[in-house]
Amino acid sequence: MSKIAVSSALRELRFHLSQTGEASKPLRTFLVKNYPALKTSTNYKLPILIREAFGVPPSVTARFEKGREVKNNLDGLKESEIEAAVKSLIKGFWASHQCMFIIVYDIL
């Protein structure tokens, strides 16, 4: 995984997956390959939680400041699509907040 810019508004990344489920296999592979890069890109300050439970569909949840959570279902995605989903989750939220800031700033 290439280095990604992580928003300072991001407080936590949480991955849910099944230990044995076939649907979670691409997410398990993604995490084995990319967990170190995710941690180093945040200087080890961002909690990245991996929650395993039997029969749980794979998903990623990002928690932002003020308790806002955004969840993406990763069921049926390939490893490359999972990487794109994680990146868009992080960048998409930040971009929308930047736009909100610009709009508020222009009004003032």
TrEMBL record:
Family the entry assigns: Belongs to the complex I NDUFA2 subunit family.
Pfam family, one: L51_S25_CI-B8
Keyword vocabulary terms for this entry: Electron transport, Membrane, Mitochondrion, Mitochondrion inner membrane, Respiratory chain, Transport
Native organism: Candidozyma auris (Yeast)
Function, in words: Accessory subunit of the mitochondrial membrane respiratory chain NADH dehydrogenase (Complex I), that is believed not to be involved in catalysis. Complex I functions in the transfer of electrons from NADH to the respiratory chain. The immediate electron acceptor for the enzyme is believed to be ubiquinone.
GO cellular component: mitochondrial inner membrane
Membrane topology listed for this record: Peripheral membrane protein
Cross-referenced SMART domains: L51_S25_CI-B8
Residues annotated as domain Ribosomal protein/NADH dehydrogenase: 19-93
UniProt cross-references to SUPFAM superfamilies, sorted A to Z: Thioredoxin-like
Compartmental location: Mitochondrion inner membrane
Annotated protein name in UniProt: Ribosomal protein/NADH dehydrogenase domain-containing protein
